[in-house]
Specification:
Length: about 325
C-alpha cells in the first residue's frame, strides 16, 4: 500500500522548509512526495531540490503559474500511490500520518477516504499521538467537518474515475470539488485525532481562505459544484455554509453584501439555493445555530428581508463560530 503526497508550492520560501521537513520526517517509507512548483520566483526551487537530493521519496516538478488547483491536478496525474493526500506548502503534517493512515487502509481495504482532523493556528503546534479509532461516517458528515482536501487520504481510483478534477483558475477550489469526490466514496473512515497543522496568519487578512480573491471566486466554485454533484443535499449544505462564511467575512471588512452579490455573480448562486432548498432541508444542519443561518439565508433567497445584520450581531455577541 503506497501513499502519494502532493504539495503545491508557490513562493513562501520562508515557510516551505518546515512543511517539507514534516514530510521528510514521515515514518513510512512507501510514500512518494510530489512537489509541484507553480511558477515560484523567490528561490523555492533550490530549497525543494535539496530535499530531492537528500530523500529519494521526493520528486520536483516546475510548471507555469496557474494556481493551486492546477498544481494539484498536475500532481494527481503523476501520482502512482494507491492513495493520494494533499499538503499546502505553508502547513505541517503529523509525522505518523502516512504510517497510521496506510495501516488503516490495509486493514480496511474497502475504505476509499480516510480522514483526520486539523488545527488552525499561527503558532507552532505539538501533535498528540494519532488515535487509531477510525469510525465510518457519511459523505455529508465528513463535509460538515470541512471541505478541505488536506487531512485526508483519497483512493487514487476516485480521481481516475472522474472526467474532471479541481477547477483550474479558481480559488476556493476545495469547495468546488471535494464534496463531489466524497459523494463517490463507498466507505469513509474518520478519526478525531489532529493530523494536520494549518498555519494561519496572525493578521486574518493574510489568510488565503479569507482573502478577497477567494471570496470573489466563491460563486464560480459553487456553480462548479452544482454542475458536477448529483447529491442535492450536499450541494445545499455546502452552498449555504460557504455563502454564510462569505457574508460573515464581508461584514468583518465592512464590504456591502449587496454590492458583492452584484459584482461577483452571487445572484446565480442564490437562485440555485432558492431552487434546490426548502424548509425541510434544515434537517441537514446538526446545530441550532446552523439551522438559524440556513433559515435566514433561505428567506433572503426567496425575496424576503431577513435580519442578516442582526444575525451577524447576535452571533458575535454569542461568540458562535460557524462550523466550516
Amino acid at each position: 500500500m503506497k501513499l502519494s503526497i502532493v504539495v503545491p508550492v508557490y513562493n513562501r520560501a520562508d515557510l516551505v522548509g518546515q512543511c517539507l521537513e514534516s514530510l521528510k520526517g514521515q515514518s513510512e517509507s512507501a510514500i512518494e512526495i510530489i512537489i509541484v512548483d507553480d511558477g515560484s520566483t523567490d528561490g523555492v526551487a533550490q530549497l525543494c531540490q535539496k530535499y530531492v537530493e537528500e530523500d529519494s521519496r521526493f520528486s520536483y516538478f516546475y510548471k507555469k503559474n496557474e494556481g493551486a488547483a492546477s498544481a494539484r491536478n498536475y500532481g494527481i496525474r503523476r501520482a502512482r500511490g494507491d492513495f493520494i493526500s494533499f499538503v499546502d506548502s505553508d502547513d505541517v503534517l503529523h509525522q505518523d500520518f502516512s504510517t497510521v493512515f496506510m495501516r488503516c487502509a490495509s486493514t480496511s481495504p474497502d475504505a476509499e477516504i480516510i480522514s483526520g482532523s486539523r488545527v488552525t493556528s499561527p503558532y507552532v503546534v505539538e501533535f498528540p499521538k494519532i488515535k487509531e479509532d477510525f469510525k465510518k461516517i457519511s459523505a455529508l458528515e465528513l463535509i460538515q467537518k470541512g471541505t478541505t482536501s488536506c487531512t485526508r487520504a483519497f483512493k487514487r481510483d476516485l480521481f481516475l474515475q472522474s472526467p474532471y478534477l479541481f477547477p483550474d483558475n479558481t480559488w476556493a477550489e476545495d469547495n468546488a470539488f471535494i464534496p463531489v469526490l466524497v459523494t463517490r466514496a463507498r466507505l469513509i473512515l474518520y478519526t478525531e485525532s489532529i493530523v494536520y497543522w494549518q498555519r494561519s496568519a496572525k493578521n486574518p487578512e493574510q489568510n488565503t481562505s479569507l482573502s478577497m480573491r477567494c471570496l470573489e471566486d466563491m460563486s464560480k466554485a459553487l456553480l462548479y459544484l452544482e454542475r458536477h454533484c448529483d447529491d442535492e443535499d450536499m450541494v445545499c449544505n455546502v452552498t449555504t455554509r460557504c455563502i454564510v462564511a462569505t457574508y460573515f467575512r464581508l461584514q468583518e471588512i465592512n464590504y456591502s453584501i449587496e454590492q458583492f452579490n452584484r459584482d461577483h455573480g452571487m445572484f446565480e448562486v442564490l437562485k440555485l439555493l432558492n431552487r434546490i432548498s426548502s424548509i425541510s432541508s434544515v434537517r441537514l444542519f446538526p446545530s441550532y445555530g446552523q439551522k438559524a443561518y440556513f433559515l435566514a439565508l433561505l428567506f433572503y433567497c426567496k425575496g424576503l428581508t431577513p435580519p442578516l445584520k442582526g444575525l451577524f450581531l447576535y452571533s458575535k455577541l454569542k461568540k458562535y463560530v460557524f462550523n466550516r
